[in-house]
Amino acid sequence: MKNIAKNNLHIILATFSFFVLQIIVSPLLSIYNIAPDFMLILVITYATLNDHIPSMLYAFIVGIFMDLYLSTNFGSLTLQYLLASFIASYFKFNSVYYIKQFIYKFIFVVFIASITSSLSFLFLNQTIVSYLFFYNFINLVIFNNLYNVIIAFIIITILPGKLFYEIK
Amino acid sequence: MLEKITLFIYKYKNFLIFALLFNLSLVLISHSSNEFFGLRTYVFSAFAYFNNLIVSSENYFNLISENQKLREINAKLLLENTRLRAAANNSLKYEKLLKIQDTSNFPLISASILTKYYKPYSINFVIDKGLVDSVAVGMPVMNEEGLLGIVKSVSRNHSLVSSIFNIDMKITIRNSRNNLDGILSYDGNSLTIINATNLFDMQYGDMIYTSDFSSLFPPKIPVGYIQKPNNDKSTDIRVKPAANIYETDKVFVIKFIKNLYLSNYNQ
Fold first, then answer.
1. Residue A76 carries which DSSP code?
2. Least CB-packed of B90, B129, B153, B167 within 10 Å?
3. Binding-face residues of B in 234-263 toward A, CB within 8 A
4. What are the angstrom distances between the C-alpha of A118 and each of A76, A93, B91?
C-alpha cells in the first residue's frame, strides 16, 4: 500500500490539486451554468500519457469520487469520464513535453473526448426526445467543451514540460 | 480451446475491461437514488470542511462590500415593508377566514454557501448548516429574492442542496395575478412551465410563486417572473428566476418540511 502510494505520488498530488481547482476555482469561472471541468481535463491528459487499462481504471475511480462528492445522478460522471478516457487513450503522447510540442493535436483530443462524454450524458437524459435537443447540444455540449479546451490549453501552457507524468 | 480463450482475452483485454467498467457505471446510474451507506453524505461533508476554510477567509475580505450591499437591501426592504404593512392589514382578516398558511411564520436558518457545483443539467450547492442546526432533508432553501432549492442530504454540520435548476425537479407554481397553477421544470437551459395551453393566461412580467398544491414547498415563496409567454408555436412558458443563484452566497433554510414522506424516504 505504501509502495503504491509512493509510486503514484505525483498522480495523487495532481488529482488532489485538480480537485481543489474543481471545487473552488471552477464555480468562480462559471458563465451561467457553463463551468470548466478540471477533473475531465485531468482524466483526458492522464489517458493520453498512459495505457488503456490504467487510464480507464483511473477515470473510473475519479468518476466515482466526483459522483460521491456532488453529482445528482450517481454514476453519470463515472460513465462520462470512462468514455472520455477510452477515446483519449487512443492518442498517445510520451510526456507533457510532447503535449506542449503538439498542443493542437492535444486540444483536438480534449475536444473529441469531452464531446463524447457530454453526448453520453445527453443521450442518457430525457431531453433526447425534446425539441430542445439541438439547442442544448450547441449550448451545453459545444460551448461547455470549448470552454474546457481553452482551460486545457492554459493549463498545458502553464505546466512545466518535463517534470510531471514522464513515462518510465 | 483454453488457449484460444486466453488469447482472445489477452487480445481484447482493453475492450473487455472497458465493457466491464461501462456496465458497472450503468449499474451505478440505475441505483443512483441510493445513499450508498451514507458514503455520499460523508464525502461531501468532509470536503465541505475544507471549503469552509477558504470561503471564510474570502468572506473576511468581502465584509465591507457585503455590509454596503446589506444596508442598501435594508433600506429597500424598509420602504417595501411600509407599503406592504397597509396591504397586509387588509388581507389578514381574509387569510384568517380562509386559514391560509403564512410562509413568513416559519423560522429561518441563516446559512452560507460553501461551494456550488455546476453541471449542464443540475446545479447543486453545499451550505454550512447541518443536523446540529436543525436542518433536515426536504427543507426549502431561499434567499432574499426567492426560492433556490431544497435540502437533499444532511450531515452533522453541512447540507447538500439541490437547486431548482435541476431536470429532476418539478415544482407546482401559481401565477400571482390570476391564481393559475402550473408545473415548473428545468430543461437544461431555462425554467419552463410545461404543457401550457392557450387557456393559460400568463403574461410577461407576471410573478410566479409556489402553489398551495406543492408537495415540496410551502406556499407563496417567490420563484420567478414570466419572461416569455406561450403562443401558437410553443406551449412552454419561460420563467426568469427571482433569485440569482450564480451570485448568491448567503441563503436561508426554511424550517419546514412539506412532504414528510419524502423526508423519511430520503433519510
1. H
2. B90
3. 246
4. 10, 23, 51
- Number of domains chain B is built from: 1
Interface of A with B in 21-60 (CB under 8 A): 23-24, 26-27, 30, 32-35, 52-53, 56-57, 60
Give the Cβ contact number of residue A82 at 10 Å: 26
Amino acid letter for position A161: G
CATH (residue range A2-158):
1.10.1760
Tell me the sheet residues that pair with B237: B193
Which positions in chain A touch B13 (Cβ < 8 Å)? 53
- Decide if B248 is inside a domain: yes
In chain A, which residues have their Cβ closer than 8 Å to the Cβ of B165? Answer: 33
Q: Where are the domains of chain A?
A: 2-158
- Residue B23 domain flag: no
* Domain containing residue B192: 37-267
B18 interface with A at CB cutoff 8 Å: yes
Kind and range of the H or E element at B164? strand B159-166
At B123-140, the pLDDT tens digits run 888 888 888 888 888 888
The alpha-carbon gap from B215 to the nearest alpha carbon of chain A, in Å, equals: 20
Nearest CB neighbour to B25, from listed A34, A35, A75 = A75
Three-state secondary-structure class, residue B92: helix
For the segment B207-224, the average pLDDT, to the nearest whole number, is 83
For cell 470549448, what's the residue?
Answer: A146
What does the alpha-carbon distance between residue B132 and residue B127 come to, in Å, rounded to a whole number?
A: 13
Answer whether A45's CB lies under 8 Å from A153's CB: no
pTM of the model: 0.66
Interface test with B, best of A72, A76, A85, A144 (most B CBs within 10 A): A72
Cα-to-chain-centroid distance, residue A127: 23
* Interchain contact A74–B (C-beta under 8 A): yes
* Maximum Cα interatomic distance, chain A, rounded to a whole number of Å: 53
Among A48, A4, A38, A22, smallest CA distance to A165 is for A48
User: A6 in helix, strand or coil?
Assistant: helix
Instruction: Name the grid cell of B48.
Output: 465541505
Q: A19-56 pLDDT, tens per residue?
A: 888 877 887 787 777 788 888 889 998 888 888 889 99
